[in-house]
Amino acid sequence: MTEQTKPNNNMDAIKRLADVVDARRADFLAGKANPDVSYIAKLFSKGDDAILKKIGEEAAETVMAAKDSRFANLAPEMQSKLVGEIADLWFHCFVALSQFNLRPEDVIAELERREGVSGIAEKAARKS
């Protein structure tokens, strides 16, 4: 297992990023972060709808990058583009989590809860 794929290192990176986003949000709410200087503060200054719209945009860009990668037979430059788009999507999801006072650990806990459960069964259980 490479250093990059060790679970603790990945979770540490996720927690560090979430901590930065949360800190920027706290600074913004306290009037200490300038939306003209901080991209994260700029997102928070625009509110829920803008944050959620950005997730939609990043999701669409991820889909397009995936389609381009498929058609390019997963050429390294296309793989890199896809990874970059997914990173953008995840980042903006972290901003949304922070906006709603949640953390990536909440998402991980939900994924762990679903572990070993058929996706079809899990989805059907949500409807009842």
Automatic annotation (TrEMBL):
Q: Where's it found, cell-wise?
A: Cytoplasm
**Major site of localization recorded for this protein:** cytoplasm
Biochemical pathway: Amino-acid biosynthesis; L-histidine biosynthesis; L-histidine from 5-phospho-alpha-D-ribose 1-diphosphate: step 2/9
Classify the source by domain of life: Bacteria
GO CC, alphabetical:
cytoplasm
GO BP terms: L-histidine biosynthetic process
**Which InterPro entries does the record cross-reference, listed alphabetically?**
HisE, PRib-ATP_PPHydrolase-like
**Annotated SUPFAM superfamilies:** all-alpha NTP pyrophosphatases
Key words, A-Z: Amino-acid biosynthesis, ATP-binding, Cytoplasm, Histidine biosynthesis, Hydrolase, Nucleotide-binding
Record field: transmembrane: none
The reactions it catalyses are: 1-(5-phospho-beta-D-ribosyl)-ATP + H2O = 1-(5-phospho-beta-D-ribosyl)-5'-AMP + diphosphate + H(+)
- EC main group: hydrolase
E.C. number = 3.6.1.31
UniProt record similarity statement: Belongs to the PRA-PH family.
The protein depicted here goes by the name Phosphoribosyl-ATP pyrophosphatase
Q: Which organism is it from?
A: Polynucleobacter cosmopolitanus
Gene behind this protein:
hisE
